[in-house]
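hi! just following up on the protien thing from before. the input was this:
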Amino acid sequence: MTRPAPIETDVYRGSAERILVVDGGIDRSNTLDLIREIALDHTEIVDDVYEAVAMVGLCRADAGIHTVLVPITIPEYTATRIVEAFRIVDGRVRLVLLVPSGRQDAIDTALAAGFDDAIETPTTLARLRRALGDRLPAVEPTEPPTSSDESIQDKNPSRHPQTPPAILENEPEPPSPTLEPQLPLENLGDVDLVECIMADDGMLRSMCLAMIRSHLGTRDVHLLEPEDDSDDDPRSSVPILHRGRTMGLLVSSSIGDEDLGRWAEWLGHWLALDHQVRSLEELCETDELTDAGNRRAFERVLLETLGSARRERRIVTLMVFDIDNFKTYNDLYGHEAGDQVLCETVALLRATIRRGDHVFRIGGDEFVVIFSDTEGPRGEHSTPPESVEQIAHRFQAQVCDLRFPKLGVEAPGTLSISAGLATFPWDGHDVPSLLRHADQLALESKRSGKNAITFGPGARSRCRDDHSSNSSDKA
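and the predicted 3d structure came back as:
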């Protein structure tokens, strides 16, 4: 059921002429008119970039897609992710970005991410022909190409193999048994679906729907959420079920329940597989006791957060802390009481931090919080309305008020924590150095008498640590 790799050869793909234009907010009437002037019978408009990716991955080789034009104004626009998605399904398709006039920065970013070209709209016929490449039929075949047209080269020749001279000169193509797919269309596409699940790119449902429409030969099939079902809807409707769980609805005005039912059953298996993979991934990155992220999740999230912080010039603060004298709770009251202490601490911490921050348990009673200010400072010396320093001290104060029934009336005093805060990029430039610095500061808090928060130089200046001129700040 998987797609044989040699079916779509470079030679066969060379005849692709179809153009997809992703619908978007740019005024594209001028651009569409010009495209139709170049290739009237080969231009299609699709609703979104997900549908475009699905069509590229599922099209037959003899009806291949040469170019996809993507407006920068679509809601889901991210240059890198769009390029990666198209390269997964077909690395030879040409990608062109449509950008409003005056956005040279967006053009530079798109080309760096892997787009083959980016043009400002409205545009000219000559500029559009250059953007679409040199494999489309010319408006006037007898017209010799201009010097600029002859000089056009793909940004990445390895992704866009040149058509062999035999085809360029219209010589007969040698017969090849691999050019024409021997398998029916319904046997193709599993590889694309598996790649969607592995990539977790959010396009599985769109690609499955595109496959169903292709097999049934109609676009009159729609995928709805379960709550969208209505008794007043005149269309045929079949639930997508898997082991008693409803995952959506297939609806159509022209396809009967029997055909929809077969495809709903097929789709249910793929959606269930995707759900199971996501669940397993979550289990692999979740601490079973406290439901916080584990060490594996911490390293992945911090690596991703630092990467985006570098690109966006944001700060990221790491707080490492552990519970003072935690071993005492386990020794005196048993591990069940100790587990309650850990769980209550995480619950309090989650109620204290901001929505975009993350909490992880990376050891027995050792925790890490990633404070990532997505909005950034409003000015050179300003901080967000609620600073990391305020959050850290509020958590330190509130954890002292926690009470645990399992510890009984003889329980020792109150909980306290010893923490260290380090801020990227001043206190560490990568995952190991930032974690190492924050961990050393937490040890300094322990040695200074516990129940303390120690800020690194970067954290102290960026977190508005105005309470003390010393490195340690005791509650």
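The chain has a mean pLDDT of 75.
Residues 5-168 form a domain with the Rossmann fold fold (CATH 3.40.50.2300).
cheers
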